Amino acid sequence: GQTDAAIEFVVTRVPENAVSAAVRIERRLDPGDTVIDAEVQVDRPRLWDVQEPNLYRLQTTLECAAAPAFDEHSVRFGFRDFRVEKGFFRLNGRRIFLRSSHTLNQCPVGQIVPPAQTADLLRKDLLYMKAAGFNAVRFIGCTALPYQLDLCDEIGLMVYEENAAASALADSPKMAERFDRSVGETIKRDRNHPSVVIWGLLNEVQ
């Protein structure tokens, strides 16, 4: 049957954990899936930038009156505006020149999995790009690993991300469906990363 529940949304700044905004909603829920719409306003947010990668965390907590336990989920995100305006890239209103490298996320020996003795190889790859003066990286024909995007969020490295169907997807009656699913699931998974500024659809496909 129905149950009374309280859903709380709390936004904090990272890493100081200072509360920036909070909203609490009390609702009677029906069995099954329930969609809750909530708006949390953060006044004067610190924008994410390649020079100052300011981050926030949203923590959602669900408590039910009939249960002593509770459930919670948190996701990290940032505020930023990235657009193409009159032929120029602009980040938070400031014209920016993309200095981008790229990666296929391939490793020696293991290809996808780095060798044990260099387990942080893919992490070092991104750190070296940033240290060398690049401000962006393109993942060609592949999705970034979640921990890579976490790192890009933290160090201020913009990301041009593609999906697994962007290159060399075999023709078949289900190709369009497979492509749409790959694009949609990639965006759904990674949409809260402020470092991801460009979604690539296709790579070298004729």
Report on this model:
Helices cover 18% and strands 33% of the residues. The chain is an alpha/beta fold and 206 residues long. Strands 2-1-3-4 form a four-stranded antiparallel beta sheet, with no helix packed on it. The chain has a four-stranded parallel beta sheet with strand order 8-9-10-11, with helices on one face. Strand 5 (82-85) and strand 6 form a beta hairpin.
Largest sheet: 4 strands, antiparallel
Radius of gyration: 20 Å
Range of strand content = 25-35%
Query: Which whole number gives the mean pLDDT?
Result: 93
Brief rundown of the structure:
The protein contains three helices and eleven strands. The chain has a four-stranded antiparallel beta sheet with strand order 2-1-3-4, with no helix packed on it. A four-stranded parallel beta sheet has the order 8-9-10-11, covered by helices on one side. It has a three-stranded antiparallel beta sheet with strand order 5-6-7, with no helix packed on it. By secondary structure, the protein is an alpha/beta fold.
Please describe the topology of this protein.
Elements: E1 3-14, E2 19-29, E3 55-64, E4 70-77, E5 82-85, E6 88-91, E7 94-95, E8 100-103, H1 121-131, E9 136-139, H2 146-155, E10 158-161, H3 175-190, E11 196-199
Parallel strand pairs: 8-9, 9-10, 10-11
Antiparallel strand pairs: 1-2, 1-3, 3-4, 5-6, 6-7
Helix pairs in contact: 1-2
